[in-house]
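Sequence in, structure out. Go.
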Amino acid sequence: MAIIMSISIVFDVSEKIDSFLRTDPGAYEILVNYYFNFVIYYSNIFSSLLIFISVIIFTSKLAQNSEVISILSSGISFNRFLRPYFIATTILVVFSIVSNHIGVPYSNKIRLNFEDTFIHSPYHIQKTNLHREVEPGEIVYFERFTALNKVGYNFSIENWDGDVLKSKLMADRIIRNDDSTGHWTLQNYFIRTIDGTNEVIKSGDKLDTVFNFDLKDFGQNLDLAQAMDSFELNAYIDKQRSRGADDLARYQLELHQRTSLPVAAYVLMLMGVSIASRKVRGGMGLQIVIGVIMAFVYLLFLRMFSVSAMNAGLHPLIAVWIPNILFGFISLYFYRTAAK
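Output:
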């Protein structure tokens, strides 16, 4: 873990060195508030893979010294040989799950606050087809929005009383003039007001007005889920769903991965012991290579199904558990063929 985290920090420093020099956050902020919490977050994410590689190295060393052969020849079953591995893995899995759901999000708040202050803006605004219910019964739509210039196109805002449309304002173009006052300028606008059977229509070339919604209502804080514990994240997902947000997959993936990634340690541990317990010619190098390859394949599957959940409509719960299920079958194969 120390080696992997040291390498990760070196790459991260090289990527962010310009921001550090430009904003000058200070050594304490960088080392304590950022990189201390950086290590907590990423070491917990990769804990299952680090357990897997550790099991490969440790068990391969036992096998090369003929200790596994001695254990099995003395009448100890392979299942009994596995028991300490399962006990140790259970302790680590429970610790990791509790950390993922409660502890690590608190650490992430400090790390992400540093990033938002000294490195980059936390909000990303989707460019097309923005829908939000900014207030109960008040629905805002942008066909396209340019965050850099704060200009929206084919804008509309509807006011509903239950199932009854009370008014609708449309504009070809809308420009944000003042972030503090909520002042906007509409171009080529069209207003339709409905009161029972009476309908009033008004249109014009330009209209200066004030709206009570903010650009942050349409922004996606891509790292927000990492800074919320699971109770807060569940409440946030429910709130976004009620507002008509269509970008929930990212947050649901984060929620479900907090359990699926630690549980993967069981699958990878069983695979690691089954692969490494056999003594082979050439030493433990081949077994370590096989283990590293399998770890990368697991990460590839995890990424592939995560992308499918965000872009292809695959349910996030299924996406995060499919790699564990597939590798569970692979682990059972290696277990059945292991030297017993």
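Check: DSSP finds nine helices and eight strands in the chain. Residues 78-118 form the longest helix (41 residues).
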